[in-house]
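Why run this: before we spend reagent on co-expression, it is cheaper to look at a predicted model of the complex and decide which construct boundaries make sense. The entries below are exactly what would go into the expression plan.
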Amino acid sequence: MSSPSGETLLIVEDEAQIRKFVRISLEAQGYQVREARLGEEGLASCVASPPQLVVLDLGLPDLDGLDFIRRLRAWSTLPILVLSVRASETEKIQALDAGANDYVTKPFGIGELMARVRVLLRKEERRDAPSARFAFPGLRVDLARREVEVDGLPVSLSRKEFALLSLLVSSQGQVLTHDQILREVWGPSHQEDTHYLRVLVGNLRQKLGDDPMRPRFILTVQGVGYRLAV
Amino acid sequence: MAVTLPQPPSWPRRLPPLGHYLFAIAVVAVTVAIAFLLPWLFPHASRALLFLIGVLVVSAKASLGPSLLASFLSFLAFNFFFTEPVHTLKVTDDGDVTTLIFFLLVSAISGNLASRMRQEMAERQASLERISRLYAFSRRLTSAVGTTEVLDALIDQLALLAGTRIPAIRIFLAEGGQDQRPGPLPREARRHGDDRPLTPAELDAAWAGRSPEPFIRGDWLFLPLTTDRGTFGLVALAAARDPTAVESARNLCDQAAVALDRTRLAADLEQAKLVSETEQLRSALLSSVSHDLRTPLASIIGSATSLLEYGEAFSAADRRDLLATVAAEAKHLDRHIQNLLDMTRLGQGKLQLKRDWVDVHDVIAGALARLAEVLTGLEVRVWIEPEVPLLWVQGTLIEQALVNLLDNAAKFSPAGGRIDIRAERVGGEVCIDLSDQGPGIPPEERERIFDLFYSVSRGDRDHRTGSGLGLAICRGMVAAHGGQVRALPGEGGHGTRMRLSLPLVNPEFMPLPEDRP
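The model came back. Tokens follow.
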């Protein structure tokens, strides 16, 4: 599935080997790829000519990855995909809270990276023409009319269940942290109440007929949050 | 009623108690009464002998003073009541003077003899007691395993010896070993008696000027705890004036010093043994780790170089096969490194749990997803009882623990075998059971397979599972949550059932059903 639009991606990563295989693979998929070895270089490159997506390594020699995200977010909403090492869930959550859109854990397979890139670019495309209707294999959601169909059959959801589902479908496969969901669905005073969220996800999965062992729709990202399976 | 014991040994009586004098007077009075009441039995001369018996009785029972008193009184009574002229103290007969002299002589000699005998008996009894106490003490020292026991025995024994005569006892122990000069002050290890001051300066001076002999500084007498290998500490006795007591205390200290020396030697040996075991473990780990890192690397390097050199000559299927090997082995290497990292984190005790409410479905699904490739060709069945509540755990760690258990089960499963995963609530715990159809584990090894040293030293290096760190890590992670991992016999006696149990923290606080609020 190549990208005819020839979108430009910027890779900010100090490891030459990783830059190389990511660039080769992305270019093979029809993307334009620019590279930056250092954080400052990357930021300058964004200012000079904003790409459609930034792939950012969190462990840069010159700049803390979180600082990079904050400085870019100060003036731009362009999507950021973070590359992080496995060690800590906290690091990923911090990056997401600082404004990163999604992450891939090193070491990663190229397929995983491609999937995340596609999700972010597709979402970016739709930003210009926001839609109230989403269709995924087996799942159709109409936000305006509050209608949900699974495999063609209508499903009735409670208010909170619908709020959660609409959040997931609007993000279109981008990861949502517990904090982000809690804030959106319950409001800012319920940041610690993960158990509400667990129960709500359980109920929603049940109504959507989603087997938690082999989820079709809602994926758990352990220690981080949830995403829609796309 | 001569009360000579119990008296502390080596503490001579200065004065016979008043009772002894009263006893002497009473004996004389009784003698007079007998002489009066039974006059027909006693002619004049034998009356004197009667009094003499009284004097002897007093001498035998009491010491010299009372017996002299008795003889004097006897003479007076005899003179007053029974010699002419009666009821006067006049002496008309020379024989009576002789009687008086006799009385005095007899009482002096016999009193002396009797009191010496008694003293000897008392001393013998005291020394018997001392010996049996010393025997008990040295038995206690012999069985003492550590410094604590030795010090306990010593302070008890010193307190017993001191009684009321030594008002305060302190034991000081040199830090870190013997002869720390001019090192830090020895620290106080035990104390007995009152809280009279012993300033650090005094202690410092005493420690600096210590000698193998007892020495006195100010109000304190210091006894060193010394063996050939040096001085371990000091015992300070307050206001100890009695040389016998000091000598006994010194004997105790010498014995205690030998025992201290012995326990320290034993501790040193133990330490040396521990170090050598750690060393052994480290080298076993190192060799296992390098083996486990190299095995996948060998496949990766081999496959990659084959493709580089001869890639064009290979069929498309072969190329793909080799590339799949590279990817799979690299992933294996990654899992192995993750294990090592986990082990390090657990070993350093720095595992700080970030607990959150976690759905048991999610951790099991996560573990299965991560091991999808390893589990290919096996049948996995999952059953989660509906009443299993949310867990208050760090989800990533429990998932990792399950990954390690599953990895292990997959390793021992026959081709096409089945792995059953079952989660249920049992009392105050949630149990997750993993049953496989492998060969099972002999009962005597069911506990040891979780032992890092055991699994590593056994050389269990099948590279599909890594160095055998997996189960030890699994147990460590679950233990960090207050839970347990055990190996049980499989159902129907086949295979193995691994049971991971987690206590339900805060079970009364259950999340509300439905989407509140």
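Residues 43 and 71 of chain A are 8 Å apart (CA to CA). Chain A has a mean pLDDT of 89. Bring this page to Monday's planning discussion.
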